[in-house]
Amino acid sequence: MIEIVDLYKYYGERRAVGPLSFSIEAGEIVGLLGLNGAGKTTTLRILACDLLPSSGSVRVNGLDVVESPHEVRSLIGYLPDTPPLYGEMTVRAYLHFAARLRGLSKASADKRVPEVLEATGLAEVQDQLIASLSHGYKQRVGIAQAIVHGPKLLVLDEPISGLDPVQIVEMRELLRGLKGEHTILLSSHILGEISETCDRILVIREGQIAASGTEAELSSKLLKNQRVEVTVRGDEEKAKEAASAVSGVVSVEVIDATEEGAGVVTLQIESGGDAREAVCHALVTAGIGLLEVRRGERELETVFLELAGPETKGDGTEAAPRKRRAGKKGAKKARASAGEGDAGAKDAAAEKEDGSGT
Question: Where is this region: Disordered (predicted)?
Fold first, then answer.
């Protein structure tokens, strides 16, 4: 669905993205994880035909974003970091407006909008002014306008940013529900948001992919040992002895009791395997009550922060190489498409007004 090869984007002499290469298969939910300024927004804007690349190849469903921007836009639903909303319109009227901009006939829009309202949980607020909605509902409206024309690919820039805990859970459920009909690429700077929602993670650092894989694969690659915390009831020293005998367990430490009669045993387990089931079996066999088993997330988050953090060497810039600019035909098409009154142009205007660049 997406194939990016040796993508570069320069702003003057400053390299914002590159060299960047990755691919995404149809039906995946993939998270682009990186700190602010890592190049996430620039990459998504190029995918959405909102920004021309300096060089490299970017293809969506086999179509080049420079040579065929109008066709690519028809395949993409784009949500910039600031949703392109009109506060004075009702939710239903706005989605009709977005549908018509995307080329749907009035009859098709009349049929499609109720489906989208239902799919995004907006039916109950469809007659309210957008300005009166909470941030969570505004994000839903932003996603609704991105899917109203039935795109194959959703490109979502920080869709969970600024939501409260309840809204985050609801947004995750919404995104998972959309997976069956769409390929989804979303960005975030928070590991928890990505790992709970996505099938695969791409870690971006200074415009380049620093690591990629599932959360389990990245844990195995980045951590020598994985930490597992087991809350037990019973003799903690006996629990330590039983867990230590399990193959793959490197070390065991007993932490202070969390409640009366219960304590936490922390295990370091070799990466590349999963000894949790064997540990649980050993503890139960030893007569230890098992209350909870969970992975130590903080350790992985620390590694991700180190991996995704800014480099310290150099001045953060590099000279621009000779770039493969868009050909005259492609550039002409890109300029023509940028002038059309479709939702992609609305997205571009909204993001430029917000001042986001990377």
Answer: 309-358
